[in-house]
Amino acid sequence: MGTEFFSQLKCRECGRHYPKKAIHVCEFDFGPLEADYDYDLIKRSISRAAIESRPQSMWRYRELLPIDGEPTVGLQVGFTPLVKADRLAKALGVKELYVKNDTVNYPTLSFKDRVVSVALSRARELGFEVVACASTGNLANSVAANAAGAGLRSYVLIPADLEQSKVLNSLVYGTNVIGIHGAYDQVNRLCSEIAGKYGWGFVNVNLRPYYAEGSKTMGFEIIEQLGWRTPQHTVVPMASGSLLTKICKAYQEATKVGLIDEQRFSVHGAQATGCSPISVAHKAGTDLIRPVQKPKTIAKSLAIGTPADGYYAVNVMRDTNGSAEDVSDAEIIEGIKLLAQCEGIFAETAGGVTVACAKKLIDTGKIPRDESIVLCITGHGLKTAEAVAEHIGAPRLINPSLREFDSLLHAELTAVPAGHRNGQPAIAGAARAGESDASLI
Ligand SMILES: Cc1ncc(COP(=O)(O)O)c(C=O)c1O
Ligand SMILES: [Zn+2]
């Protein structure tokens, strides 16, 4: 199955067709190549009922993913919860809010498991024995784990100054971790040279057309989990800008193949101010991206100074009536805490970026309070624990004595604001329904 659905690669700029090989740029205009499908055939072949009857993984949208045979890597990836986030909605002063929770994606707790399962399934079809990536951390984790599980040799190249957990979470799988003294852009350039010289399958270089399509599954799942409709607003963190463009592509494809009726939707992008080339371009009303030479933010997973899909991301935001925002490190930490304390979801710094940017977009009226909103929360908080470690307090220490516990509790009950006692975080308790509280972030 499949060969007939995924037809070819196609240049995003000139539309020229290319064979389904490990290539990623057009020879004529250097435009990026993208997977193309026989949508008429897919429309005749799939239905909501057929999809719903399949196992709960991202592969239930198999016809719209770019491999020829059956998937062989990452069969369990995806179909993460779409959480109706009523307490966070109240805190932000909006009516209908959901969190697409990829902090619990399998196996490495980020949305990158989606792109890697497609890239490595395709890498095997193309006969690669060594796979590799340039990564800001999460991609490295996922390539390392999925390559180990598939018995493929792997090399992951990362900036040397990543969070400890991200490094550890690659090393443990026995992959070759190469730390580069430099920013992500320099890592990426080196990887292009290595791919050319050694002929390895770099998931986000020569296998990028396949890899990138995996991100669509986040969009397909949102649609299905909402009862086959698109949310009016989707807020997406941006590094290269690929995930944002692919969520839009998923919404468009679902319409094209008849899974949903045509609906209006806006896609909004979120970045950290310390590395916000896409957000800056969008705000300036241009699609010309000015590279950031020295990213400076705790959101290291989003720190890409020259975003490969930045131009396309700006265009998606413009065409869907979406907006871009960016936030400071302090706002990112408040965003992480707000999500954790309202919904019990611990996100990494990229998640804090998404929550804090969503708050800004709501407060400035770019996202109306009475429309449906999905926040894409893309990685787990334990991966970036050091970013919040000094901002969340510490345990109170006592001896194993009931008397000491009694006096601790007594001191707390007299000191802590009312909101905490009935299980409400003070910040959420302070917000009135229908409006946001400026003290939240
Ligand atoms: C947690 C997390 N969220 C979002 C992104 C953004 O991905 P993209 O490069 O597709 O914009 C990344 C990229 O590394 C990431 O690690
Ligand atoms: Zn071209």
Report on this structure.
The protein has 441 residues and is an alpha/beta fold. The chain folds into two domains: 6-75 and 112-211, Rossmann fold; 82-109 and 215-388, Rossmann fold, CATH 3.40.50.1100. Helices cover 39% and strands 14% of the residues. The protein is built from 18 helices and 13 strands. Bound molecules: pyridoxal-5'-phosphate and zinc ion (ZN). Pyridoxal-5'-phosphate (PLP) is lined by residues 110, 112, 136, 138-139, 237-243, 301-302, 348, 350, 378-379.
What structural class is derived from the secondary structure elements? alpha/beta
Low-confidence stretches: 421-441
Our measurement of the CA-to-CA distance between the termini, rounded to an integer number of angstroms, reads 49 Å
Question: What hetero molecules are in the model?
Answer: pyridoxal-5'-phosphate, zinc ion
In short:
This protein has 441 residues and is of the alpha/beta class.
Outline the secondary-structure elements.
Blueprint: E1 6-11, E2 17-18, E3 33-37, H1 39-45, H2 48-52, E4 82-84, H3 86-92, E5 96-101, H4 112-125, E6 130-134, H5 138-150, E7 153-159, H6 164-171, E8 176-180, H7 184-198, E9 201-202, H8 208-213, H9 216-225, E10 233-237, H10 242-256, E11 266-272, H11 277-283, H12 310-319, E12 324-327, H13 329-343, H14 349-363, E13 372-377, H15 385-388, H16 402-415, H17 418-421, H18 426-430
Parallel strand pairs: 5-13, 6-7, 6-9, 7-8, 10-11, 10-13, 11-12
Antiparallel strand pairs: 1-2, 1-3, 4-5
Zinc ion (ZN) binds at residues 11, 13-14, 16, 26, 28-29, 31.
Keywords for this entry:
single chain; 441 residues; alpha/beta; Rossmann fold; 2 domains; six-stranded mixed sheet; four-stranded parallel sheet; 13 strands; 14% strand; disordered C terminus; binds pyridoxal-5'-phosphate; binds zinc ion
